[in-house]
Specification:
The chain has 3 helices and no strands. The chain is mostly helical and about 140 residues long. It has 2 domains: about 40 residues, no CATH class; about 80 residues, no CATH class.
């Protein structure tokens, strides 16, 4: 039953205990083997609204999110998307895509499994800048 568990965390001993602690933190698992109460399972979902893609396989180029109509086969849903990498893609073989939120023909697309974190509308730096400008102008 727990063959995958032993394969991932090791069989035991001191080295196995160190491996257990490191990988358990990554997987969000308690020492007893149960997940944290607030730990969420990574899913394949829409980058904009969080709607889960439950169909096996990758979305096609024309597939849209059923809630917000965003393109699902886009750079923002890809495993290789990294805003800090050159051209915002970790895959060096992929062609440059200018509009990351639009569907494209990238042959290296693989939909990412992530925990959905909704984007906040309010930007604290923007609010602080507006407040300091109002103080400066006396509004």
């Amino acid at each position: 039953m727990f063959d995958w568990f032993r394969a991932w965390f090791g069989r035991g001993g001191e080295r196995g205990a160190i491996r257990w602690r490191k990988r358990a933190r990554f997987a969000g698992v308690h020492a007893l083997g149960f997940g944290h109460a607030n730990a969420m399972k990574p899913t394949r979902h829409c980058y904009r609204c969080g709607w889960e893609w439950a169909i096996p396989g990758q979305p096609g180029r024309n597939d849209l999110c059923q809630q917000c109509s965003a393109d699902l086969r886009c750079c923002l849903n890809c495993v290789s998307y990294d805003p800090k990498a050159a051209e915002q893609c970790r895959d060096r073989r992929a062609d440059l895509v200018h509009d990351k939120q639009l569907a494209n023909f990238c042959e290296y697309f693989d939909m990412a499994r992530r925990v959905f974190v909704p984007r906040s509308e309010a930007n604290p730096r923007e609010e602080a800048a507006r407040n300091s400008l109002k103080k400066l102008l006396g509004d």
